[in-house]
Design brief:
13 helices, alpha/beta, 292 residues, two-stranded parallel ribbon
């Protein structure tokens, strides 16, 4: 199976590694030469192209599947729309219009589209209530993917962590605000996409990619501190944190957003996690923490 990974970054490079190891032919597409070098360092083919540039994408060879994993690079809603919605449309039109179009499209989205559910459980059937411009754009892009002439699957990632993104200091070295964490290790995020492609599952569906155990931030921070041999970090309520006048509006919305994401559908599909919970996923980071 030949797979074009558009926006081949943090998850995409790991996906390419996994596909390559299993005998497939990944092609990583990035808009920068530095990004292409990172793909080549991972051992598979890289091509330089912007997802919003149809002519550049035309140079990507025919493939069996496309994975749209592009990022807006932390820019605002207008830039996000240009990448997630218009870029996705451009990519679909470019590949679907070929004499030998791909058979599958996977669009990587975010559980952020659910908005706030007061700590309740959410799954694929839960109505989405995006609360920011960016999450509204993501939700719009999901509809583009599911309406595509190339059969689409939407994978909603929970909070990504893993190599270079453990951020232990966030929970060990400063006050921790109450709330829930929904997480998935980078290797499993890539593994979910790889599994759905290989097994030809979830056509036309949305699937949550999240590990087995949403965890309270206070409990997670205390567990990390214990594992690292440190005292429990200070805690603060949402009200205490929101009293900070310097908080940006997006930060305030993140603090107020609370939900627990279920992976029951993903488990029903048969995916087996490499890191079922944060305990397994953070093991290497804990071992490497400076106090150990």
């Amino acid at each position: 199976m030949r797979v074009a990974i558009l926006g081949c970054g943090y998850v995409g490079i790991e996906l390419g590694r996994q596909l390559l190891a299993r005998g497939h032919e990944p092609i990583g597409v990035r808009r920068s030469s530095e990004g292409c070098e990172a793909i080549e360092d991972a051992g598979f083919e890289a091509m330089r192209a912007d997802v919003t540039d149809s002519e550049a994408l035309s140079r990507v060879p025919d493939v069996d599947a496309i994975v749209f994993a592009a990022s807006s690079g932390g820019r605002g809603a207008e830039a996000a729309r240009g990448i997630y919605v218009e870029g996705l449309r451009t990519a679909i039109e470019q590949f679907a219009g070929r004499a030998d179009p791909p058979d599958r499209l996977v669009y990587t989205s975010s559980t952020g589209v659910y908005g706030d559910h007061g700590g309740d459980w959410v799954d694929e059937a839960t109505p989405t209530e995006p609360t920011t411009e960016k999450t509204r754009v993501l939700r719009e892009a999901e509809e583009v993917a599911l309406d595509s002439p190339v059969t689409g699957t939407v994978v909603r990632f929970a909070g990504l962590y893993g190599p270079d993104r453990y951020r232990l200091e966030r929970y060990l070295e400063r006050p921790v605000t109450e709330g829930y964490l929904n997480m998935i290790h980078r290797d499993d995020a890539a593994g979910v996409v790889r599994y759905l492609l290989e097994e030809d599952l979830a056509r036309g569906e949305t699937v949550l990619a999240v590990d087995d155990e949403p965890v309270g931030k206070w409990g997670f921070a205390d567990w990390l501190a214990e594992q690292c041999g440190l005292p429990e970090p200070p805690k603060e309520t949402k009200e205490e944190r929101l009293a900070d006048d310097d908080l940006s509006e997006p930060a305030r919305r993140r603090i107020l957003t609370s939900k627990r994401c279920s992976n029951e559908r993903l488990r029903e599909l048969g995916y087996e996690f490499s890191y079922p919970t944060f305990r397994e996923g953070y093991r290497e980071a804990v071992k490497a923490y400076p106090s150990r």
